[in-house]
Each structure stands twice: as C-alpha cells, then as structure tokens.
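User: Teach me something about this protein's shape.
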Amino acid sequence: MTTDHGTGPLVRRGPLNGVLVLDLTHALSGPYCTMLLAEMGARVIKVEQPPAGDVGRYYPPEVDGQTEFFNAVNHGKESLLADLADPGDQPLVRAIAERADVLVENFRPGTLDAWGFGWDELHARNPKLVYASISGYGQTGPEAWEGAYDVVIQAESGLMSVTGFPTARRCSPAPRSPTTSPASTPSAPSAPRGAEPPPARAAASTSPCSTPCTVSSWAPTSSATSPQASSPKRAAT
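Assistant: First, the predicted structure itself:
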C-alpha cells in the first residue's frame, strides 16, 4: 500500500515497490488503473495537461474544496504539470519515460505518436518499457477514433433505456453534426480519449419537450473560474 501521513514523502509497500509508472491518463479508466498500481506499491507519476489539469478535477461532488472523484482514482500518485505537445516540456516527460517500467495512456489512437510518445519511439529508447494503451474501440478499425464515454456505451448497449426515472422529461436524440464529429477530424489528434467532450449536436426537430433539446460543445472549467479545485504542480522528479 501507499501511505502519506503529511509528514514526508510517500511510503510505498507492496509487490510493486520499486516499479516506476508514467501515468499519461485522464478521466476514469486510466487513472483507476494506475491508482491500483500505486496501491500495490508502485511509484506513479501522473502528467496533467495545462492549464486546468485532469478533467476529473472538475467532477462533483466536492469536499473541502477538492473533488472526491479525482481523489478517489488519483490518490497515492505524484502530479506533474506538463504539456505533451510542447517541445519545451517534452524532454522532461521523455526522460521519465526512459526510466519508467510502465507507461499507461488513454489518448485517442495516434495522439501520442504525433507528439513523439508512441510505442515505436519510446520502445527504441527504453526496451524494457511495458506500454499499456486503454481504448473503448481498439487501436484500429472504423470506430477507433471514437471516445468511449459512459453514456456512449450505455446508449450503444441499450442500458440507457432502463435507467433514470419514469416521470423524467425525455428528449429525442439529435443527429450528430458532421462538422464536429471526431471521425471527421483525423488531422487533430490532440483530444484525449478520456477527456474529449462529446461532439456538438444540433437541436432535435422532433423533440417532445416544450423547448428544443441541445447538447452543446463542452470544455472543462478553467482553474481561473474554479479556484476551489486543487491544481497540479510543476515538480522535479
């Protein structure tokens, strides 16, 4: 287990003591995976994208100014604020990758390759590296670029039809806008799988609601508007 009594560095005990994990994940699936590694004693260095950090920092509920969701899946880790697409930040992250035993990521396929952190490049620098990629639709195929959000899987599986409250107002699904679909923008691979918002949708013309139902483009609240959320720090490793 990993413990921190607020008096010094993290004390790691467990079967993975001595294992260094580079955590390039966001939201839920990846952070949960690396949290389990940390609980088994691994040293996990979590890299968060500036300026706001992991989108999970803005999921409610909050207790004492910190989101419980983020703490639940990121406790026991070290946090490093670095822009993986910034040539000025890349050398530090690459140096950690060259020393790491494990790298875990949940970006959309091709994103890390474009930034110079793909399997081929990092394996050449660090042959012992275990490189784990988490995805909802695989690394290849017609849907590989799609984000695997909870609501997306619920909708595709039919689970959404039996959730919620019978008396709740229902809205008809709206058609996906072809100009904002991730599949139509393969040249912009900077959106992480775990943090990419659903594509913008047009108002539903057949909605039974009194007003059209829309789902607009979403972006995480910036740190400037959410001072209560703890921020990742730039720190030497």
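Now, about its shape. The chain is about 20% helix and 15% strand. Residues 177-231, 233-237 have pLDDT under 50 and may be disordered. If you'd like, I can walk through any region in more detail.
User: That's plenty for now, thanks!
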